[in-house]
Amino acid sequence: MSSFVNHPEMDPGKLRALNTDALAYVGDAVYELAVRQRILLSGVSRADRLHKTGTGYVRAEAQADVCRRIYEELTEPEQAMVRRFRNHKYHSKAKHADPMTYKWATAFEALAGYLYLAGEEQRLAWLFERAFALLESAEEQEQIR
């Protein structure tokens, strides 16, 4: 995965001071762009198929499932961040997910936002590739049934 936009790494002190909502806000955008890029590169080009395919990657249940499944593969500092993000008190409510799913999904997005803003492109690429592999494998298994 290549960098979406060249940007200077954020000052570590300022980055640590950002709250979960701010990191998830950035992570959501970065992940959405990576998903769209992956879908287009797979050959899907019709608008209705683009949207339907993308939904499988970005819905809260999918992000929460990925975050739970890769948790043990994360570094200790990343696990600590996920715990912090997951335990954050949320001021908004999920429209289509239960509160625990919403917390795990937001933790996934916040971790992506943190990695992006920290300039940790290789780790961000790993995170997204693992997510894609898990979600695409689950989709294949569903099609077999």
Keywords:
145 residues, mainly alpha, Ribonuclease iii, N-terminal Endonuclease Domain, Chain A, 72% helix
Describe the structure.
- With 145 residues, the protein is mostly helical.
- The protein has one domain: Ribonuclease iii, N-terminal Endonuclease Domain, Chain A, CATH 1.10.1520.10.
- The protein is 72% helix and 0% strand.
- It is built from seven helices and no strands.
Topology as a string of helices (H) and strands (E): HHHHHHH
Shape: globular
CATH architecture: Orthogonal Bundle
Cα-atom radius of gyration: 15 Å
| Derived structural class | mainly alpha
Put simply, the count of helices is 7
Largest pleated sheet? none
Percent of residues in β-strands: under 5%
Proportion of residues in helical segments: over 70%
CATH fold-level assignment: Ribonuclease iii, N-terminal Endonuclease Domain, Chain A
Q: What is the class in the CATH system?
A: Mainly Alpha
What is the CATH superfamily label?
Ribonuclease III domain
